[in-house]
């Protein structure tokens, strides 16, 4: 009995212990799960705190932008010296062809490319329909047209072709069209400037801290327009292949106008404006963006004769303008001879030499100056390196290297054997007429009173004498056709044969007129150059500078003089009383 009675009690104790162990294990599992959950939450909190700390320490804070900042253009504005906009940014529409417009991968166009191109032609009459068809058939994405007006964009949408997409983009616009194109350059599709001041000022124009302030150039749009107009007119009248010109402030070096022809429109850059086919380059053509004034070097011929005379006066080689040199016989230099185009006289003095543009006497004067001295002066005038100006395309002179002997001086004295850019010549003439100070040319506007000091090349007395001689040339010599009444123009012609494979080509000339005005107190230098002019009715069938380049300067000075504050005054002129008697009949 006792044994049987105890068995149930033992089973009861065993069952109670089992229940207790089960509850304890369940409680332990619950606690472990709670700890795991808390650990996960702690890890997430630590990650969040770490992220917040990283953002605060490593990442820049949120940008605070005012309404004015948001309205700033992506690229700064360029203006002329008077604030006239030359280049600015503005929002525009463009027509883009998207061949992936259909999600199912089918044909991007509902109708045929020919029909679509015809519809676009009706919206844009100047569109090349065959070119558009070719682009649509190519299956490649690309622009069909840029700079679209809002109303034209709506018409394109009405065509109903999903592949014709209208996009919004920032566009660089040149309000004055092709004016000053070689100064400005253009902005390429990558948003960066090319060729001109757009390239030079690229970082400045894109800088968020500076792009609100327009960049003022030294260019005067009124003078620039007149220069381009007269160069174009002169080039076409004599069927020249190109032309170049500049108007330079002699006291500051500021370029008021700079032009090269043929020109281009920076609003619509063509492939051939930048790169020409090989057959055209082999024929001697240059792309339109090529700057003849700063990048092409020429032998500028007789325009160097006044510089040679200035050196001779400055060094004391010439102390008497009435001194006479023989002019009847060519000068033999080895197997070559330096002669004049026609017989001028048996002897010539300095004023007569410049008035009649004698190679023979100019060479003799250069020979007396000597090669080393002439080379040194030309170097001080900046002709031993690329011209000083901000533009990236600048041509290096030819013929300035090595030591100059007497033979080199004989030829360089009248502008042969040395090739420079027309900009070199303009800066040298500015130094010759402004009192003798050479300053670098610049396209940046200079505030009054902040002109660079420059370097002295000629004595002030030499400069004063050269102003008289330049005026005599315009009154009595080869520069007569440049004498704008009342503006007291002075200057020198230069007509040089272009070099070729087998020596100089007698049928091709570079005609140049280098001038300054008003000669009683010179303020501006003007250079006009024509590349390969022909003898036409407009030039009395002559090819030399006296008949084609000089008239350009005359018309230009008459137009820009009043704009620059130089009014015509027939009662004023430089005093020529001590040199007029030296000029023969």
Automatic annotation (TrEMBL):
Matching SUPFAM superfamilies? beta-lactamase/transpeptidase-like, Penicillin binding protein dimerisation domain
GO term, biological process aspect, one = cell wall organization
| Cellular component terms (Gene Ontology) | plasma membrane
**Domain named Penicillin-binding protein dimerisation: which ranges?**
73-189
- What are the TM regions of this chain, as residue ranges? none
Q: Which locations, inside or outside the cell, does it occupy?
A: Membrane
Q: Specify where it is mainly localized.
A: membrane
GO MF annotation list: carboxypeptidase activity; penicillin binding
Q: Does the keyword Repeat apply?
A: no
Where the record annotates domain Penicillin-binding protein transpeptidase, the positions are 246-545
Q: What Pfam families does the entry give?
A: PBP_dimer, Transpeptidase
InterPro entries, per database record: Beta-lactam/transpept, Beta-lactam/transpept-like, PBP_dimer, PBP_dimer_sf, PCN-bd_Tpept
Instruction: Output the superkingdom of the source species.
Output: Bacteria
Q: Which residues form the signal peptide?
A: none
Q: Which UniProt keywords apply?
A: Carboxypeptidase, Hydrolase, Membrane, Protease
Return the PANTHER family for the record. PEPTIDOGLYCAN D,D-TRANSPEPTIDASE, PEPTIDOGLYCAN D,D-TRANSPEPTIDASE FTSI
Q: What is this protein called?
A: Penicillin-binding protein 2
Q: Which organism is it from?
A: Aurantiacibacter xanthus
